[in-house]
Amino acid sequence: MTFDDYYKILKAELGALYDAGEAAAISGLVLEHFTGKRVRPFSSETITELEAAKLLRFEQELLNGKPVQYVLGEAWFLDRKFYVNKSVLIPRPETEELVLLAIKTITQKGLHTKQLKILDIGTGSGCIAISLAIELKQSMVTGIDISSDALDVASLNSQILSALVNWHQVDFLNPECWEAFADYPIIVSNPPYIPLSEKFILDKNVTDWEPSIALFTPTVDPFVFYKAIAAFCKKYPLEERMVVLEGHQNYMSDLQNLFSDIFRKVEIRKDINGNERMLQAHNS
Q1: Are 142 and 117 in contact (CB under 8 A)?
Q2: For residue 145, what are the β-bridge partners?
Q3: CA–CA dist 139, 172 (Å, integer)
Q4: Which of the 8 DSSP states describes residue 23?
Q5: Helices 224-235 and 252-260: crossing angle, nearest 10°?
Q6: pLDDT digit of tens for each residue in the chain (284 aa)?
Q7: What is the DSSP letter of 2?
Q8: Which of 62, 110, 114, 244 is the most exposed place for a label (fewest CB within 10 A)?
Q9: DSSP element (H, E) containing 276
Q10: What's the whole-model pTM score?
Q11: Which residues fall within 8 angstroms of residue 31, CB to CB, at 6 or more apart?
Q12: CATH assignment, 77-282
């Protein structure tokens, strides 16, 4: 059997769990992992016994509902491959848009040539902080997270991708930690914003596998992290401060009101699907 033959078999089997497009995409990621090719035909080479055993293990995990990124231990983000495991969220395309928005705005303001301090709150796999560090080479980027396991993943990714990022274990909901970051003018974050009450409407391959601490707010208040970020900005005001945040599409107008008390300009941006998902706040 060739890799291309196996692609067809795996896609058909995954059709029991996913629609045809998603089954094809997942199968493609698995075959890319083995062959290095991102499109068909993957390979006409015969699969070895060792490769067949590994493919069978992957197949069983996928049919159990385990996300393909955790099965492979890797996820693509802005054309870079990140290591991921169950300690971190799987990077999403919407978060790529968040990073691109931050880079675009920083560049338009001419700040990309300066030694900016950038803070990524709730860094998880480090995909935001690392991408910013690579694209904005003059900047000093710091990623913080409450989870030491997540920071282990982020640190490994920064080594793999040769990105210089400072990592700190911090509970940002504790105001006692804020002073250490008071002089950071740029904040970029995709914090937990899903209330636990919405858990039942999410796909089981999300709630059964991805870390709850990174998905759901620790209180019934879906704005708890945003309120902390807003309070931080209010306590340590900087004229040049800019905040770029990802949020829940149902709550963006409320977030806009929250940050309008602190910044002169607060803009809501839509993602590629036309959903309001990003907030950008600044003074100029």
Answers
A1: yes
A2: 169
A3: 22
A4: H
A5: 20
A6: 898 899 999 999 999 999 999 999 999 999 999 888 877 777 788 899 999 999 999 999 999 999 999 999 999 999 999 999 999 999 999 999 999 999 999 999 888 777 899 999 999 999 999 999 999 999 999 999 999 999 999 999 999 999 999 999 999 999 999 999 999 999 999 999 888 888 878 888 788 899 999 999 888 888 999 999 999 999 999 999 999 999 999 899 999 999 999 999 999 999 999 999 999 999 98
A7: B
A8: 110
A9: strand 276-282
A10: 0.94
A11: 3, 4, 6, 7, 10, 37, 42, 43
A12: 3.40.50.150
- State both tokens at 236: 């340590």
Q: Which of 159, 161, 167 is nearest to 141 (CA)?
A: 167
Identity at 211, one-letter amino acid code: P
Q: Is 120 in contact with 132 (CB distance < 8 Å)?
A: yes
225: which residues sit within 8 A by CB, 6+ positions away? 121, 122, 172, 173, 189, 191, 192, 193, 217
Domain boundary assignment for the chain: 3-64, 77-282
